Amino acid sequence: MAKLTVNDLDLRGKRVLVRVDYNVPMEEKDGQMVINDVTRIKETLGTLDLLIGKGARIILAAHLGRPDGKREPTMSLRPVAAKLADMIHRPVAFVDDCVGEKAEKTAGALKPGDVLLLENTRYHAAEEANDPSFAAELAKLADVYVNDAFGAAHRAHASTEGVARIVAQRGGQCAAGLLMERELKFLGDELEKPARPFVVILGGAKVSDKITVIDRLLERADTILIGGAMTYTFRLALGLKVGKSLVEPDRVGVAKDALEKAKARKVPFMLPVDNLVGTPVNTGRLNKKGKPIIEIQNPRVNDGVNIPDSEEGMDIGPKTIQSHTAAIAGARTILWNGPMGVFEDPRFSEGTFAVARAVAAATRNGAKSIIGGGDSVKALNLTGLTDQVTFVSTGGGASLEFLEGKVLPGVAALSDK
Ligand code: 3PG
Ligand code: MG
């Protein structure tokens, strides 16, 4: 990577503003906000250790949720400061605003190795607007800028992009953190020249979310395995019956183009050959949002590629599990993004879990496996196999955009080596 990293910097006594992605899942329990998954915090500890070891004065900035410029109490980072302190076994100071006098004073008083977490940057509308004067306020807090927030690097916001430009303009350094560096290595360099066969597994609900990635990976992959509800849009494109399955009729054209491109490039594009289906039944009850609650009844195997009119596709079937996992077993590089079915429902989790197990087994046999964020990571965590793959991205939208070949604004803004 041609970008400066924290390893390149001399930081003793310097105030370092570190953008992290602490946008962690939270839940209210007995009136308190509780963190459900600390992965994104844990993954920054390498950078923090290094910065502490270098004697930096560390100022962490992050967003949480989408408070839209308001001080939404359930989206405060205060519980994250407490959790981080537990995890690094040192005090973590917290200031209830990310800019202004109090933030400046507290940042100025830090000693080498001290850590401060600032309140949610998105409490200010100027953050998402990438307002230059707000970015300048953030820049005032620090001598050096480090971005370790790969998961937010696709956003051109003040704390991910604007602040870096201001620090650079005044001659300061802007570097990638260790997590950012690792994400770019695995999702970028490692997939540029993959060991072959390179097998790509793509799932998830929508063709529209994945079509650009599919298009790009068709130029590099040896095999593409498809699962999830996007299957049914591809089936529509092939003139097959999809019953009540989730489809995007307006994406049939792009689905056809992808199928043709795969054929022209002779890349096996393996759509499911069977499915688990169920019968959607309206319960007559409404959910919290006032929408009718649909229950899926009578789960069963639908052996074939046409789905009856009354049925909805919910997971890949046993034959597909067999062919997909066989392809995975032969891979030397694996990229997986998106679940194979509605894995949150135990009746329809087997396809996704079987893929997870196959990816872990292939990794044990020497393949490099890279899991691209979001739901596939959740599924992998449920199987307990997260430690048995080569790399798990902390990015959702960011990893997809990066795989699409887009330039991430948060990366572009960093100093070149
Ligand atoms: C994420 O969770 O995808 C990142 O933290 C970015 O959050 P956002 O989608 O609200 O911009
Ligand atoms: Mg998101």
- Which parts are unreliable, with pLDDT below 50 for 5 consecutive residues or more? none
Task: Indicate the mean pLDDT.
Answer: 96
The bound ligands are:
3-phosphoglyceric acid, magnesium ion
Structural class from helices and strands? alpha/beta
Principal-axis shape equals globular
Helical coverage, percent range? 25-40%
> How much of the residues is beta strand, in percent?
15-25%
Cα separation of the termini: 9 Å
Number of strands: 17
Backbone CA Rg: 23 Å
**Widest sheet, order of strands:** 5-6-4-1-7-8
Please count the helical segments.
16
What kind of sheet is the major sheet?
Answer: 6 strands, parallel
Description:
This protein starts with 14 loop residues before the first strand and ends in a 5-residue tail after the last helix. The protein is built from 16 helices and 17 strands. The longest helix is centred in the middle third of the chain and has 15 residues. By secondary structure, it is of the alpha/beta class. A six-stranded parallel β-sheet has the order 5-6-4-1-7-8, sandwiched between helices. It has a six-stranded parallel β-sheet with strand order 11-10-9-15-16-17, sandwiched between helices. α6 crosses α7 and α10 crosses α11. The structure holds 3-phosphoglyceric acid and magnesium ion. 3-phosphoglyceric acid binds next to loops.
